[in-house]
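Please check this one:

***
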Amino acid sequence: MIKKFRLYIMLAAVMLSATSCLDKLPEDEVPFDQAIQTVDDVNLAVIGIYDAYKSKYLYSGNLTLLPDLQTDLVYGINGNTNIYGDIWRWKDILATNTDIEAVYGSLYEVINRCNFLLDRVDNVRKNTTDDTALDKLDQCCGEAYFARALAYSELIKLFCKAYESDEDATNQLGVILSQHYRGDEEMKRSSLKDSYQFVLDDLDRAADLLELEEDFSGALYDTPYFNEYTVYALRARVALYMKKWDEAIKYSTKVIESGYYTLSSCTQQISSGISYYKYMWTNDHSTEAIWKVGFTINSYGGRLGTIFANYDYTTLRPDYVPAKWAINLYDANDLRASTFFQSFTTGYSHGLTWPLLIKYFGNEEFTNYKILHVTMPKVLRLSEQYLIRAEAYVQSGKTAEAGKDITAIRAARYATYGGSTPMGDKENAMKVIEEERVKELYMEGFRLQDLKRWHKGFKRELQDQSLSNGSSLKVEADDPMFVWPIPQHELDAPGSEVEPNESNK
């Protein structure tokens, strides 16, 4: 067991590419039994896992954007490029959709890289005697277990129904589980219960291997590397999705009360006119980031903010603009609004003037190199942990405790916020939390899952210059498209026993 947190330098990634869950290395690559011979090889394999998370199809692109585009947070604008148009229109989401296929394949690529390392590491360990090197192997395994758990948690979130109870989940379809790079595992979906249990088991292993020393006194915030508290943060999220309220409270509290993270203030300034909160989005540094995907100007993923601006140094021609109802949720004192949105006159012939999303306009250090709209995804943040705990408190009948967590968030985000947050009864308290999740997590990829697990539908209303096809969409609760279709190539693969989702039909 390692009890020390280390940072490894980001190096060139090892090439372990895969496009779907059972695709392996091409025949001309290094043979499996000859790969990963040393501790340094193991470390390089871990760097390859981190590198896989840079994919433009994951947090810096599709995985973040598509679930929110599919709902009611933004509107397609007249004259746009139709990028992701089938997702936004909702009814055109097919099993052959390449954007969904890319998410599915990229997550299984992460899983394959993890399995490749974990299957080979024992061969390295048996030839290693140095204690420091053995500690490094444990650290690397912990990172691989966490990375695999994270990838599976996202697959479950997108391609499975909401978790209602252990009994119900036993009879619901989960995902294809693979824990070996070279194994004879069936190409068949496990139950939803077993799929979540697989994630929990990996998180337990990761927690043991990534445990900090008792006297650890360093900084953990703003890191692009996994550690003990990234494990707890994901564990809290998974517990919320599984409706394990006590577990959600337990693990979110571990993070909140650790002392390693602090909510970024909208009023305290890091430099003239720039608050700590705004700096989190303009420069990708924050005291509340538990784990972010680390980019450099020479190695980065997708351009997350492109569709909200398409800035060409002359005009802005966004494909999607914020929904008016979402903008109107923000209180006049809520400084998140001015951080996220800014009114511009677009470069379209219709000259729409609208509050555009500037949250992902781009890291200023990158724009200095004329790299626009690149933002490092903050996948796990402290504010989400407060929201997780608040919701779990409400579901546990502790609305007063939930109010304290909402107050903590608002105190950090408002120009002034005194006293407490009135929560009322359970129904009203959940309304407060639902709205707070929209305001705090806007376009970070949570909305589709939230509506699915709350069993809520939505309705879009036409707004100025919004596309007529899709702007009046009404979606009922539990619509089959809340669960993405399994990619057709997975269903049609030789030997496949993969069962489709209702949305496949």
User: Anything to note?
Assistant: The two ends are 48 Å apart (CA to CA). The chain has one domain: 32-270+380-504. Residues 1-20 have pLDDT under 50 and may be disordered.
